[in-house]
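To: structure desk
From: M.T.
Subject: fold request, one chain
Message: Could you run this one when you get a chance? Sequence is below, nothing fancy, just the single chain.
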Amino acid sequence: MALSTDRPKVAKTPANRTIRAPSLTELAFREIEGMIITGELETGERINDSQLAKRFGISRGPVREAIGRLAAAGLVEMIQNRGAYVRVIDVEDALEIYDIRAALERAGVAGAARNMSPELLARLREQVATMDRCEQEGDREGYFDSNLQFHRIIHEAAGNARLLELCERFARELKLFRHLSLITAGIHQSNQEHHQILAALEEGDANKAADAMEAHVWQAKARLVALAESLKGKPHDLRAPH
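Reply: Done. Structure tokens follow.
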């Protein structure tokens, strides 16, 4: 599967800004990231840059650069004298991520509340409606994806580039965590918490939205702890509440 580079190298926007086509490194980064997120490259698996370069129809240089970027993004672990491996996220790693996310998400939704618009509210309502449908249909993967999109809209609306970067990093890392399931009860509670966050944003109450978001993250962590305890010693291939 060769990487597509058929786009024009330069395009003009209405504001007369120049947009350059993605480099081979960027294209390789996107492809490998997708392979990791979908599980085609499994956690703990060694990444063979020669095979990937052959698959993409490019030299090893851009692939190696892409792997380095993925390591910086938290998806790949570089082991000296052994190579690059898809990072393994265990329960302890996930719990640490939730601890940091509580503060980040609180700050993010408070900033988003100040920048909220009818368009942004409409996008958030759309994601909540999708989560409602996924809950009813038992679609865990669909719920997980819409859940991430709900949070991403809020992160972007906050207008804080560093906060967005950190939240995106942690979201990518949590995508690697597949040990615990969004069981039906967990999905329902998580979904109700999203409704509460949305309601606070609709009211324009930044403090209420921040409290609801922080409580949501702590509850997600509590669900993870409870499930981890209940599944000790049992075989499972599950995903964490979020």
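Reply (cont.): Strands lie at 10-12, 18-20, 46-47, 76-79, 83-86. Let me know if you need anything else for the meeting.
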